[in-house]
Specification:
mainly beta; 32 strands; about 0% helix
Length: about 400
Amino acid sequence: GKSIAGNDDSRGPDSYIRFTIPADGEYIVRVTDHLSRGGPEFVYRVEFQPVKPTLSLGIPRVARYSQSRQQIVIPRGNRFGTLLSVSRANFSGEITLDESQLPPGVKMHYETIPGNLNTVGVVFEAAPDAPVGGGLIDFKGKHQTESLTVEGSFKNRADFVISSPGQSLYVWKDVSKLPIAVTEEAPFKISIVEPKAPLVRNGSMQLKIVAERKEGFNSAISIQLPFRPPGVSAASSVSIPEGKNEVLYPINANGSAQLKDWKIYAIGASANVWVASQMAKLTVAEPYVTFEVQRASTEQGKPTQIYCKLNHAHPFEGEAKVTLLGLPPKTSTEALTFKKDTAELTFPISVDPASPVGKHKNLICRVELLEQGEPVIATAGVTELQIDKPLPPPK
């Protein structure tokens, strides 16, 4: 005598209901017109199907209505990288990829896709003597446990007819084969200099990308980092200048970046050729030290101090440097150093009589230390400084 589930056109002109039958018995399906009308021309169809787990793979579009980089094109003795999207329905868990259909001389580098990720990076590598050629392969993924096995294939939509100016897609074809080919050698290769130090939460890093050029090839090379671990951000692209062989790629981790040893890769483009680096390890870790920074207040022309209590999470060798950034104009301090057992620090703040009055927020303590000879840079604490106008002298 009560309603279990209902829906009004959730899938365009069709309604869709997904629910669990609470118990065996008789149930009534009711279909009504919005105005509760009826008649012989009011036709409907009801379809039932069980909920089943499904899996599909794809390559995210890099341009709208384009098949650009929807194929795997690997130069001999080189690599090609792509993002792979994983679409799970009615199940969760890890996914592995099937390499059995790859062309001769081609291998694939990737990590088992964890259940909390829907997009990962995959690098294909062709041997120097891999046969030139290719074809369409049945590229599959698989989830398998003792109780459940789910398999799925690559799918792609080829766009054929697009309206103008509305840019609506009218004619398309869905295909389930992945185009893959080995080509002649490319005029350059790229690689990541794998960092020895971690990228810490609320920290930054300069990732070095190195190019290996063939003799006579001096063109600029555009570099991108397609896959960023959760919580890690980076510039959209950087460029290795003409005639140069390396560039630094700035990356950052926010305060909730997922802690793990990740595999990342870079792609490079020049002369209408795309290549990829190797899969390199990037460790995302907790900060070595965090600061509990007290707020401070003073008057124009009067010096003050900002006190910091240090919480050490991981020991380090040597001395670390901390700089207080974001001070208002006409105030200043000095950088301080500390060691793995330092418990507290105090920044002396000099304040000019003409310093601006008000509450100055987002004063940042930036820490820099060395791990295996490489810098680890992070924001360790944030505070604020209140500057007041002094009271007039008594009459």
